[in-house]
Amino acid sequence: MSILKIARMSDNPVDVPPADMILLVMAGAVARIDNMGADEPCGRFGARRIETGRIALNLREAGDGPLILLFHGITSNSAVFAPLMAQLSNRFTTIAVDQRGHGLSDKPDSGYDAHDYAEDIAGLIRTLDRGRAILVGHSLGARNSVTAAAKYPELVRSVVAIDFTPYIEEEVFDALEARVNAGDQLFSDVDAVEAYLANRYPNIPVPAIKVRAASAYHAVEGGLRPLASPTAMAQTARGLRADLVPAYRDVTKPVLIVRGGESKLVSADALAKTSRLRPDLPVVVVPGADHYVNEVSPEITLRAITNFLDA
């Protein structure tokens, strides 16, 4: 079987992780992963709310085995992880979480910095009482997962951090904050939501766009609005600018960094600086994927996660 190295797709003259720190993905093995489409029905997973003592969180759950918790990006929700859950639940207890301010979870008026999200993760792991957890996070969820692992290593087995690192440039956060705030709109119907999302996320496949449209909006007078609280989103977007270097410097649990080769959030330079900070952390760069790696390339994302966990 041939080996496909998932490596950086950039000509920028920046330092890259050592070759032995780049995870390998088996070419051909990806093609044999079945049912990885984003149209995986979210209804096949059990849904419930859980009170952690500090906040009530909405969960989607499937499978049995070691505990994996999945945390979405800003403005999103747990439904985006359905394709990964369908595969990972064959080996693991997989629980995707609506983070505070998002989806069907509680939306307090304040408390949206990294510390607040990390405390939610710690409280959830303790409440579930299923032992240490593997944390898989995308974007905001990656920031929160690494922060929680650095602060509470006794609760965490390992972390997969998808497309969020230290050293993200200020102009990138400016653009992100503008996009997030612009999402607080009234839409006439689901078709209007899908058209907006397709324009905002041009590389996300149509089935995944439909999942977002169906799961992240609710009916109000005059149409549909995002389930994510606009106040919470504004605070969260500002909080993403906080320095993540201490968490990455201090984390002692195994961490896999995954970056989309065409990501506009994590630049090649930001990744290189992160690798210089922590040269011991393995890196996967997914060619052709943008920031939304797990939705654009779910097969490669799955293979990267399972290779990392099996290593």
Describe this structure in words.
This protein has 311 residues and is an alpha/beta fold. It has helices at 82-88, 114-128, 140-151, 170-182, 190-200, 206-215, 230-239, 245-250, 268-277, 293-296, 298-310, and strands at residues 3-5, 24-26, 46-51, 56-62, 67-71, 93-97, 133-138, 156-162, 217-220, 223-226, 255-260, 283-286. The chain has an 8-stranded mixed sheet, sandwiched between helices. A hairpin with a 4-residue loop joins strand 3 and strand 4. Helix 4 runs antiparallel to helix 7 (230-239). The longest helix is centred in the middle third of the chain and has 15 residues, at 114-128. The model is unreliable at 1-35 (pLDDT under 50).
Q: What's the helix-strand series? A: EEEEEHEHEHEHHHEEHHEHEHH
Strand order of the biggest β-sheet:
3-4-6-5-7-8-11-12
The general outline is globular
Helical residues, percent:
25-40%
Low-confidence stretches: 1-35
Query: What characterizes the major β-sheet?
Result: 8 strands, mixed
Q: Alpha-carbon distance between the termini?
A: 18 Å
Number of continuous helical runs: 11
State the secondary-structure class: alpha/beta
Return the average pLDDT rounded to an integer. Answer: 89
Q: What percent strand?
A: 15-25%
Q: What's the total number of strands?
A: 12
- From the alpha carbons, calculate the radius of gyration and give it in angstroms: 18 Å
SSE map:
Elements: E1 3-5, E2 24-26, E3 46-51, E4 56-62, E5 67-71, H1 82-88, E6 93-97, H2 114-128, E7 133-138, H3 140-151, E8 156-162, H4 170-182, H5 190-200, H6 206-215, E9 217-220, E10 223-226, H7 230-239, H8 245-250, E11 255-260, H9 268-277, E12 283-286, H10 293-296, H11 298-310
Parallel strand pairs: 5-6, 5-7, 7-8, 8-11, 11-12
Antiparallel strand pairs: 1-2, 3-4, 4-6, 9-10
